[in-house]
Amino acid sequence: MTLVNMNQLLEVAKKNNFAVGAYNVSDLELMRTTIEQCEKDYAPAIVMIHPTELRYCKDDFITYVLTRIRDSKIPVALHLDHGDSVDSAVRAIHDGFSSVMIDMSTKDWETNVRETAETVRIAHRIGVSVEGEVGTIGQTGIHVEGHKKEGIYTTPEEARKFVEETGVDTLAVGIGTSHGIYPSDVTPKIRIDILENIVKAVPNTPLVLHGGSSNPDEQIADAVKHGISKVNISSDYKHAYMAKVREILAEDDGWDPNNLFPRAIKAGKEVIHHKNELFNSVGKAKLYEGIDPWRADKI
Length: 299
Description:
The chain has helices spanning 6-16, 28-41, 51-57, 60-70, 86-95, 109-124, 156-166, 192-201, 217-225, 235-251, 257-278, and strands spanning 20-24, 45-49, 76-83, 99-102, 129-134, 138-139, 170-173, 178-179, 207-209, 228-233. It is α/β, with parallel strands linked by helices and 299 residues long. Helix 6 links the parallel strand 4 and strand 5 (129-134). Helix 2 (28-41) packs across helix 11, helix 7 (156-166) runs parallel beside helix 8 (192-201) and helix 10 packs antiparallel against helix 11.
């Protein structure tokens, strides 16, 4: 199997009622954690890189990522997460990403539609799929006890109009999740009733759940059952990875990467395996066997 765009990946997921895990990476170890576990699970995967992560890991890191994906036995999309401008999407396309997100959801409606439609126009010329966002995802901050900022729920009418006006391939919706790890005094609640109404409004558009970390398992599984096709995960598996790094460093000086990283990678993999099981994606790579490689005529 090989690199695919989001349309190729999520068409199968939507038809078969499972979700594909989308995992943020920014270095070799996190890439290994993600791709090796998804291969072991024989689960389709989405490797995501945020603009801030791309600024850190640099464009030449993408050469390794693409080589590793093309050598994989599972279908993988390489996706720009929360592109903050048309230029950031173009940069990712130039680097070889098969899918990009343009997130203007905090701007006014006209700006969101205009910038998303322009990204779609550029990306579709070469078969790159585009994710947009209507409504906003909450924020919890970078610490477990961080301040929680509420997001804005997506309405079915907004979702339908946005898809029609932009031509976006996948849609991230606000249904009660937040980015990051939830503070201990917050009990998250995914609004399945809102999700069901959005699915009815845009039945042919795969829906994306951002802020998938730290939500109760039963809520995530329920969201997948009711129409979510892609779930974004970053904080949960990175938290497990870094907790193990801190544990090892507390035991000794941890100067040797061969001592420090393997156990951290294992801890991260355990979380990813659990998420793949939760998304019902384990073993689902078999549904993509014989799929054509990513091509421009697949949009």
